[in-house]
Amino acid sequence: MTDVGRLRADFPILRTEVRGKPLVYLDNAATTQKPKIVIDAIGRYYEEQNSNVHRGVHHLSELATKLYEDARVRTARFLNAADPREIVFVRGATEAINLVAQSFVRPRLRSEDEVLVTHMEHHSNIVPWQLLPAVLRVAPIDDAGDLVLEKFEEMISERTRFVAVTHVSNALGTVNPVKRIVEMAHARGVPVLVDGAQAVPHMPVDVRDLGCDFYVFSGHKIYGPTGVGALYARLPLLESMPPYQSGGDMILSVSFEKTIFNHVPHRFEAGTPNIEGVIGLGAAIDYVRGAGLDAIAAHERDLMDYATGVLSRVKSLRIVGTAREKAGAISFVLDGVHPHDVGTILDREGIAIRTGHHCAQPVMERFGLAATARASFALYNTREEIDALAAGLRRVVEVFRA
Ligand code: PMP
């Protein structure tokens, strides 16, 4: 188990008060708070190391390049990728999915080809596929929020050109059996992208064990900065892909007659990258590895079980999403109270949760709801914070009963 008290001390923002109350931050699926070592790594970069990367021969440029490339090695190790060249730094999960849609899938599409997703995807894993000239097929989920695996398998046909599934649902907390999904797709020769935005903060991820072709995540959901994320792609696939964006750094030579593109992964990192973001992401990865992903997973398992029990006992509360395996988030509704009102009343007590459709409107539609309230957890949350949430929710119920 983690020593939560010690870990909490690493996050300066957790010492702040909101409206005179200690902050209870339960909106971690939207973005996580940042430990001091991430904040310091970014500060140190600007105070002592700032320079452009892959360009100069001077000391600072070499230093910044080394820090940037070290972060790539650490990201590759974090996902157990075979080679650091399989890691492309991007703005986040959203950009990574767009990159794969445009550079890998689009050139391979023939007329009437299909892209298969699930009903529990985030908008970022729906809309990029809708921009392609392909038919979007949607594998159903059941009333618990589990993927109907037999149906998913049936839907893989000769027309299926690509499969894109989330590892963990941000709206329901469902953990998908991605290894099994990859096996099913690969049995039909179909490549698979896994959206790991909500998985990497909560469990160890091994892309080679999963067998997936692409894996994407965002830095800000794993205690790193915003505006940075990573795409993992198997090397032969990445090498087969044309550039996504073009400009500086992604070329070996340019003339008006002929431009030669750079090797992977630089071919996909056009322009000056988010250097401080990448360095901050490297620090965040060191941080979670230091805390231990198995220990984080065990602590959060306890929080999820505890919260499920405590919230179930709040009168007129219904948990939305009761999948066999869940991680990170619990969605719920209170009878007769709009989720936005729940969020606003809790905010007065310093408790931050998310309310709305969570960028997963098809999930809301599947459960006949416009919105839910969602509490989502991180390594620094405690049972006491969950008790505070439950007490706040009881007050919400009283306000609306009065
Ligand atoms: N996929 C999932 C499952 C998510 O939860 C999110 C963020 N809420 C994204 C993709 C998109 O991440 P970002 O906005 O950081 O690109």
How would you describe this protein?
The protein has helices spanning 4-8, 36-49, 59-79, 93-105, 127-130, 149-155, 178-187, 207-210, 235-239, 275-291, 293-312, 339-347, 361-366, 383-401, and strands spanning 17-18, 21-22, 24-25, 87-90, 114-118, 135-139, 160-166, 192-195, 214-218, 229-233, 251-254, 259-261, 317-320, 329-334, 351-352, 354-356, 372-376. Helix 2 packs antiparallel against helix 10 and helix 11 (293-312) packs parallel to helix 14. It has 2 domains: 4-30 and 292-401, Aspartate Aminotransferase, domain 1; 38-290, 3-Layer(aba) Sandwich (Aspartate Aminotransferase, domain 2). Helices cover 38% and strands 17% of the residues. Helix 5 (127-130) links the parallel strand 5 and strand 6. The chain has 402 residues and is of the alpha/beta class. It is globular, with a radius of gyration of 22 Å. The protein has a 7-stranded mixed beta sheet with strand order 4-10-9-8-7-5-6, with helices on both faces. The mean pLDDT is 97. 4'-deoxy-4'-aminopyridoxal-5'-phosphate is lined by residues 92-94, 122, 124-125, 166, 170, 195, 197-198, 218, 359.
Which whole number gives the mean pLDDT?
97
The first-level CATH class of the largest domain is given as Alpha Beta
Q: Indicate the CATH topology of the largest domain.
A: Aspartate Aminotransferase, domain 2
Tell me which ligands are bound. Answer: 4'-deoxy-4'-aminopyridoxal-5'-phosphate
Give the N-terminus to C-terminus distance in angstroms.
Answer: 42 Å
Unreliable runs: none
Q: Look at the structure and name the CATH superfamily of the largest domain.
A: Type I PLP-dependent aspartate aminotransferase-like (Major domain)
Count the DSSP helices.
Answer: 14
Oligomeric grouping of the chains: single chain
Task: Summarize the amount of helix as a percent range.
Answer: 25-40%
For the record, the CATH architecture of the largest domain stands as 3-Layer(aba) Sandwich
